[in-house]
Specification:
single chain; 62 residues; mainly alpha; 2 helices; 0% strand; elongated
Amino acid sequence: MDLSWLLLLACPLMMVFMMFGMKGHSHGHGSHSDHSPNSQAMQAQLDELKVQIEQMKHELQK
């Protein structure tokens, strides 16, 4: 008996449940604009990496 059709039905259903779960989980945790110290450190590292990438691009163009 081929149950592959069951997988095809399960995937969209799981996606719906996951979306509702994520939506309910985000309430009460503040907005996305609130930055924790960890996210600020990560943003600083990201900015530093962007500067390094631009420097490397300049060096490669020489």
